[in-house]
Amino acid sequence: MRKWGPLIAVSLGAFMLLIDTTIVIVALPEIGRANGSSYADLQWVMDGYALALAALLLGAGALADIVGRKRVYLVGLVLFTAASLLCGLAPGTGTLVGARVLQGVGGAAMLATAIALLGDAYQGRDRGIAFGVWGAVSGASAALGPILGGLLTEHVGWRAIFLVNLPAGAVTLFLAGRMLRESYGKRDARVDVPGAAAFTVAAGAATYALIRAGGHGWSDRGVWAAVAASALAVVAFCVVESRSAAPMLDLRLLANRSFTGILVGGMAMQFAAFGWVALASVWLQGVLDHGAVQAGLMLSPLAVVAFVVSALSGRLLHGVSPRWIIGGGLLFIGAGVLLLSRVDAGSDWTALVPGLLVTGIGVGLGAPSLAGAVLGTVPPAQAGMAGGAVNTFRQLGFAFGVAVTGVLFRDKAESMLDGAGLARPGAAAEALAGGRVAPGAAGRAASESAFASGLDTAVTVCGLVGLAAGVLVILLVRTSGPAAAAPREAAVERPRVAAN
């Protein structure tokens, strides 16, 4: 137990924070019904968490190097667990979204320190085993999320998907406090607070603009005010980072085609592979009237196939250049998501299966290779920054994917409902996105057709993004050797160890 205690403590934390990305998906219709939430509200339940993770990962890693990685991990774990309690007790959607943001803050502290803690705890062959187990647990969390979320939502209630983190968090906190040892990076480093603030505003304002456009249309002044705020924040971020002695992201790395290609690939992968999943969950439950457990099982082929393929690809594709693995994975994702556009008003859940299987192959190929590939594009001294950057862009891809698909769905569904002669098609489209079909036989038929068309539009765009990103990665990335060849020893600077 003593030898593998650090691995258990870090892996349990990873399981908690990563499963909370997917466990909420099948609970969205129930959350919406219980709180009278619009689809925009439900988008924020997912994106509040993803944006906090994305915005704070790099800053949390820098802070941990200074004050101690174990300390930051424990603080993040306590905050995540406390925020889970707030989620479970939330009286309304606003409180739930706020608590989800706090969850993301805690999750960022945990995720930013996980690799470094494992790197300090293990050496040689044991380190390889530890990273392999940690990666497998991370993959399993995505596979189990929809199923566990469905079971808890249907048999206990949606609040249980958050409250289950309380005993898990207590056990993890006990193990982490006893098993992990403190370690540090560069104690004289600085936390790039201005850069983190500008990045947070840029990402948050852009996501707000997209989600607001889905509910109010592109003519809304608030949408364009958010777009302007995001653009100004991007400019401020670039100015701050170019002048900072210790930038959150060294902008000179973007001149490296391989580095930039992998960042774009990671962002597009999450956008294409997962941006539409919430809409599919709403379709299964709100339109086809399946239960939450059934919806979780119906969506699980993607994650299950991804888990199996990721385990096999590490052995079978050793020696293959990462541009072919990541680029090929994106092409599979693009093709698989485009297969989902076969859904029509008369389809049942089996129409999703071919697309889910092909998409799962792509995720299993590409996702595990991103971290190793990006480390191979930068000097060892910048490995931590590069690893944090690719995780940040992946979370941004998920957040933007959820927001963009919501806009696409609403525009198409409103157009279809208007053509069917329904009164107030905009309001009807918003209700439909939350799983509430129009009353009456004619209203239900129009709703089924409109939802299928909106979903098809959303997945078509996601599929095209995946295909385009796959081609771009193949053209840009020139890292030689296998994706796994980036030395894991370089991924974690050898930390100085202090007594517990």
UniProtKB/TrEMBL annotation:
PANTHER family xref list: EXPORT PROTEIN, MAJOR FACILITATOR SUPERFAMILY MULTIDRUG TRANSPORTER MFSC
Enumerate the NCBIfam families for this protein: efflux_EmrB
The residues that cross the membrane are 7-28, 48-67, 72-91, 97-119, 131-152, 158-177, 189-211, 223-240, 261-285, 291-312, 324-343, 355-378, 390-409, 457-477
Q: Which UniProt keywords apply?
A: Antibiotic resistance, Cell membrane, Membrane, Transmembrane, Transmembrane helix, Transport
Q: What is this protein called?
A: MFS transporter
Protein location? Cell membrane
InterPro entries for this protein? EmrB-like, MFS, MFS_dom, MFS_trans_sf, Sugar_transporter_CS
Q: How does it sit in the membrane?
A: Multi-pass membrane protein
Q: Name one Pfam family in it.
A: MFS_1
Domain Major facilitator superfamily (MFS) profile, first and last residues per copy: 6-481
